[in-house]
Each structure stands twice: as C-alpha cells, then as structure tokens.
Design brief:
Helix content of chain B: 10-25%
Structural class of chain A: alpha+beta
CATH class of the largest domain in chain B: Alpha Beta
Strand content of chain A: 15-25%
Order of helices and strands of chain A: EEEEHHHE
Helix content of chain A: 25-40%
Structural class of chain B: alpha+beta
Shape of chain B: globular
Distance between the termini of chain B: 39 Å
Radius of gyration of chain A: 12 Å
Largest interface: A-B, 19 and 18 residues
Number of helices of chain A: 3
CATH architecture of the largest domain in chain B: Alpha-Beta Complex
Largest sheet of chain A: 3 strands, antiparallel
CATH topology of the largest domain in chain B: Phosphoenolpyruvate Carboxykinase, domain 3
Radius of gyration of chain B: 19 Å
Distance between the termini of chain A: 12 Å
Number of helices of chain B: 6
CATH architecture of chain A: Orthogonal Bundle
Strand order of the largest sheet of chain B: 1-2-3-7-6-5-4
Oligomer: heterodimer
Order of helices and strands of chain B: EEHEEEEEHEEHEEEEEHHEH
Amino acid sequence: MELTSVLTPADNCPVREVGDGYVILAGDGETTHSLDGLGAFIWKRLDGQQDLASVLAEVVAEYDVPADTATRDLLEFATALAEAGLVTLA
Amino acid sequence: MKPPRDNVYTLDLTGAAVGLVCHQPPLAVGLAKWFGRPGARIEPTIDVGLEFVDHRDDPHLPTSLLTTKRLTGGGGFDIADGLITGTYDARARTGELKIKAILLEGLLMRIFEQVLYQAHASARQAAGCGGFLVHSAAVIADGRGFLFVGPSESGKTTAARHSSAWHVLGDEMNLVVPTDDGYLLAGTPFNGTFRDKQPGSAPLAGIFLLQQAPRHALATVEPAAAAMALAAEIMPPVGLDQVPDNDTVPTMMDLAARMTDKVPVARLELLPDPGFWNIIGERFSLAPSA
C-alpha cells in the first residue's frame, strides 16, 4: 500500500452507518467490521478517485495528528481494509 | 378460540406463539418440565407437529442448525443430514418436525430448542409483528429491562446468577420487540444453564456488552462497535421454510444499528459477584431492590 494508491469499496459489502461510524459486512457474508469516527472519515474518501495522499491531507487538516504518525496509521488502516476484502485498488 | 388440546404445548413468545403439537402425548408433559413452566393458554400463531424418532445411527451434532440446513422443496427441509427433517406451510401456518431421539438426551435438548428459534421466526412472520431473539441474559430491575449480551463464556449466566435481587428473565435467549418509543424486552421459555428464569417484560433501558474482568466497570463503546457486537448476537430471523440468504446478515446489522441508536449501550466488565449492580444502579438511578 502506498500513498499513490487509490482505493474503492469492494462490491457486495453492505455498509450501515451507526452513530459517526460504520458497520461493514465482508464479502464472505459472515464477518462484520466496525469503523469508528476517524475510520469512517477515511472510508468516505475511498471513492476510487482520491489517492491516499489526498486522503492523508484531509486527515491531517481535520485531526490534530502529526503527519508522519498519520501517514503510518493511514497506510496500516488501508492495508487492513484491503486484507479484510473491504476495499480494492481502483 | 379452539378448545385446549392436551397434546399441545404452547410457547408464548410475546406477540406470537408456537403450538407444539406432540404426536407422542407424554412429550407435552416433558416439554413443560424442560421449559420450567406450563404451556401458555393462548391461541398459537402457528402449529408445529413434533415427533421424536428412534434411530440406529450416531448422528453428527452440529453447532448450528442454520448452516447445516437445506431446503428439500415443497416447504420441506433437512437439518444436519436428517437429524431434523420437516415441512412448513406458511399459508396454512402449520408444520411438522421429525427429530432424532438423541436430541431428547439431557442438554442435547438445547440443540432441539434451536429449531424452535426458527419456529419463532415463522410465527412472528405469520403474526406480522416485529421482534427478534437476542442471545443474551436479561433482567428487569426497578421496572426497567436490561440486556446482557456477549458470546459464550462472556458472562451471561454469571450476570443472571448474580441478579437474584431482581427479576431474571433468562440467561440464553430473550426477545426484543420494537415499540412506538423504543423496545420491549421480554423473556422466552428457552433455556440456558440458569434455571430460575421467570416470565415477564419491561421497556428496554440499557444494553451491556459483557466482558469478564478483575473488577466491575462500565465503559463507553463506539456506536459502530456496539452495533457490530449486537448484530453477532441477534438470531438470524430465518423461519422453518427458509435458509439464510444474502439479506440475512444485513438485516441483523439493521436491527442492531436501530437498537444502538435508541438504547444506551456500554461495555460491562464484571466479576462473578453482584457488585456490578452497584455501578448499573448508579448509572441508571435504580431504586434499591426489595
């Protein structure tokens, strides 16, 4: 996963908004995942258009977090989403 | 109103009822003992015939009756390669179950109960009323209903055992029914390991996600995490003539999301003693128990 990566939600993964987060059902039809407010903030921007660098800029602007920490956490989060089958590379 | 039938044991499921028509009459008495209460004296929403059959094989006992269920056509179904077979006619609101007699042995009855969860779903669909089963312990305290949710070994029976100062509805499977201003929490006849459960219902005031811990504590939970945990404990609303499909889990997610939106959810860390009621009582301003 790199900052130039562009991600899009996987097909067949129903999403439910709960509070300021999301519950997402993986493609296996059984495993659910939850995203908190920050996770949901990022998820909304994985639209197949923005690359992760652009998402990172929005995260840093919105949240009080150092850029290097945000970069590491965003790449880990995006990798976890991909490994869970919730997103694909656009 | 039909006259009472001696061979029918009726399960009252708050808004819907399942009449278990026992083709072997002593079974109705046995069911009353198993469920720890006489059959309800209400008109069943659906009737399901019950017959336990002898067998020579040593059947595989599944952990889930849903994942091993297949439809055989014409309203027929087969669970776990013949462990339970049956039919259900939604229009006539009647069904028949043939169950291998091994499920009458001790705690294996709890596997048999699982097919009644499906009968419950069929009855609710027939009655056209909302409501769903949640794998949980449930207690009424100071007139308010509290749901203790978690997977096996998370502390549901512990919570029930240490709630004797209040009205314990059960430690295994309870009903949540939507109302105009929230939810009604109701007990069911279904068994866990806590046998002193009592019938009853109350407005649902709080939901606790259980976690055994070295101290009692209430902790906040992100709403999405709460909904995810709740969804995992909602019984799939799958009737006797149905199997899970692509809409089943999303439906459970929807039910959980709506509950999380309307009812306070917290993580309850608990020890095996009644002390957790002190922090619940403080949080919810409960009057002391009688």
